[in-house]
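Comment thread on ticket #2218

A.B. wrote:
> Attaching the input chain for the structure job we discussed in standup.
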Amino acid sequence: MILEKIQKENDIKKLTDEELRLLPEEIREFLLDKISRTGGHLASNLGVVELTIAMHLMFDLPQDKLIWDVGHQSYTHKLLTGRKDGFDDLRKYGGMSGFPKRKESQCDAFDTGHSSTSISAGLGYVHARDLKRQSYYVVSVIGDGSLTGGMAYEALNNAASLKTNFIIVLNDNHMSISENVGGMSKYLARLRTADIYTGLKRGVTNALNTVPVVGEHMISQIRKTKSSIKQLVVPGMFFEDMGITYLGPIPGHNISMLCKAFKEAKKIEGPVLLHVMTKKGKGYQPAEEQPDKFHGVGPFQVRTGEAEAAGEKDSWTDVFGKVLCDSAKEDERIVAITAAMAGGTGLARFSRMFPDRFFDVGIAEGHAVTFAAGMAAGGMKPVFAVYSSFLQRAYDQIIHDVALQNLPVVFAVDRAGLVGSDGETHQGIFDLSYLRSIPNLTVMSPKHKWELADMLRFALAYNGPVAVRYPRGCAYDGYQEFRSPLQYGKSETIFKGDGLAILSVGHMFEEAVRVRKILEKDGIFCTLVNARFVKPLDEECIRTLSQNHRLIVTMEENVKTGGFGEQVQAYVCQQNLKVQVWNAALPDEYVEHGSIQVLRRETGIDAETVAARIRAKYKEV
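C.D. wrote:
> Ran it. Output below, let me know if you need it in another format.
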């Protein structure tokens, strides 16, 4: 096994030519075997095997810095830096992360997880290197999908003024998670098909190389000028016009050609972009045919590509998508917006049913929010479906462009709370804190799938901005009988008790029910309230609870600081109410990867831990 010879970084350089020829297939077989067992990001990793091999052959890690945009395509990089054994516990609690992590290896130059960041981070490294008069290469890898994000262009704009080497690799696989959209996608498509340009460039370069003494100098001068041969063949060379040397397109599965391109790139004094064409899912037919399906997967059968047996229950995302489509049939003003996540956010069905009312803006969450604001101002009812951790990227736009004008935009905040195996960069554990602070914004969270349907309809009818927050996974379908009509700002009492009251937020209701049952065995019969609205706070409910309860416990899957519990605590203090409040919330920490059940237990918000804490506190009050 060739991989056994790679125990640490740079060991790949000791392999023979024949071993290097066989290595890509062995890596793909290894990744298929491991990811089919653990789950993870498959298609993106299969697509960059040769590219990663070439970079590890041409650069010296950890001295040289390799920065992956998003980072979910870094599995081969981890293999080539001696982390093969870590794949048995990939994305499990305490195991190896599915993303680059500086604390995991010196060869991981920068922690990543969100899109369009690698050029900015790489540029920072370049300036740090130059200021400290150090000598190493910086390579930022960015996908064509990530080039739909505005931050990438801000970084390119700054990078253009560099006078020292900075290598940007554009991994062009025609995809982000969903198929790419917009002008940059079309521009890159034209570059891919510019065979006349590629052939002419190669011919001119080869001819000049044969000229003694002055040939290399002439090639260098051609590269440095903006009016180079490229301008004569491909009109409007975007990167060259900015001052960034463009090399490509380069076949991304030809290691020899990739190595030659990197050798050329290392000679350039200034920023250089290597346009590398790869195929997402390369080498595994199901992933090649459906790269979006195999972007992030659970355990699956390698032979068929079919997922291991999953539950038949609807997911929260499924419920959202179905209800939105039903509502859109009745109201032609409803439009749906995604930031390159139509499938993940449940909008694929909407896109098929209402193509004229569906908008994929690419990986551009800030733009998506202001775009939605403009549509709302124009009389439409926009719904922006987005993962909680990605909505963080549009905080200013929510405040300035939506809430300040009190525009009727609906934020469908998916993957709220703990999301599990993707870890720190994807946990949706801050949204209650950052959304609750925004004036004019209503924040709701459903206890079960029927309440999600009711809340979405309520949000669509409400004349102002509303965020509906729900988690990943199967939608809770218990207590269907508890589905009283929604009243703005009002909570819902499910069970009445005495002495102790539990106020649960959204999907923590299921855990709160378990807490109540555990406490019943100890003779503690508590009131259970479904908060429904995080903002505005149901102050009347809290005043009522304070009259016949000694302790109020809040339960939420959000960090404690700025969350629902602190809001309740502050109100009780301000009103001088005679009741104690304890918050069962996540610690103010980044929560690593692992199953949701394990993470709840480790962070102390599982039913057993909460019940034990309540027993102790109830005795004290």
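A.B. wrote:
> Thanks. Noting for the ticket: The radius of gyration is 27 Å.
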